[in-house]
Design brief:
single chain; 134 residues; mainly beta; 5-stranded antiparallel beta sheet; 2 helices
Length: 134
């Protein structure tokens, strides 16, 4: 049996290439401003270099709420939020907890999520996105 040819090696290389560098793993690479939107709400998440964050939840139309806290990145590149508030106030259209997890590098930008949002018409699963170049 012959060893795999050069063509096979190129196929394997290009199959694995998209998996390399797909996740933000340094603290500097996860900071910035992310936005998420559903028909009833727009959410802005500012992740600061000092390990603090501010989340602003704006109803459409209506009130705005903020929650803040601390964040950390573990040795495996997983992102964790710590906040006194797990959920938004009851009179807002139920915005779920902040998403712990991995910041993915996708064509549309850096993505964190999903989070659950319940609007009057339907529940939604949305992502925080930080477009490239910000």
């Amino acid at each position: 049996m012959q060893p795999p040819g050069l063509t096979y090696k190129f196929v394997v290389f290009f199959a694995v290439l998209p998996l390399l560098g797909c996740f933000a793993t340094s603290e500097a690479s996860v900071t910035g401003t992310y936005t998420a939107a559903a028909p009833c709400v727009t959410i802005t998440l500012i992740v600061k270099r000092d390990h603090s964050f501010v989340q602003t939840i704006r109803e459409t139309p209506g009130k705005a709420y903020q929650r803040s806290g601390r964040w950390r990145l573990d040795n495996n590149g997983r992102f964790f939020f710590e906040s006194a508030l797990d959920r938004s106030p009851q009179d807002i259209h139920q915005v779920g907890s902040l998403p712990d997890g991995i910041v993915e590098r996708l064509p549309r930008g850096k993505v964190l999520g999903p989070i659950q949002v319940t609007c009057p018409d339907s529940p939604y699963e949305i992502d925080y996105v930080q477009p490239w170049g910000r």
